[in-house]
# Entry
Amino acid sequence: ARGMGQHLLSETLARLREVGGVAALGACFGATAALLRLWRRVGSELVWLGHGREPSSGHHSATVLIPIGEEGWRLSRRLQTRLLQQLPGFLSGPLARLDLETLTEILTSLSPERQTSIALREGSVQKDLDLSAEDSADLWSF
# Structure
């Protein structure tokens, strides 16, 4: 039935919040416009795009997180900051052949307006988005 996945996800998130100790819920899937839109609508944060196409779907992989606690929000912000820094190079390299609809969804997911809206809604505006030394080393290793 339509909406079943969203209902199951809502129930899973509610139980994870009750249990505690879980920073975020993650998912990885073939990056299509429809799937990016679906995951964005349930509150996920796009944190990574794969460089190559996945053999199973023929699409680049997308990784999303749904932050559950403050630690999850910090992790999501760090990963998104790194993705935003790398995106121009990806778009002129491994992601150069993305279709327009998928690219539009990616950019919508990473837009400053969306980030501000999410931060305000969650009450966790993060002013310090500097990468850690470890994240910087990861960035330059690619």
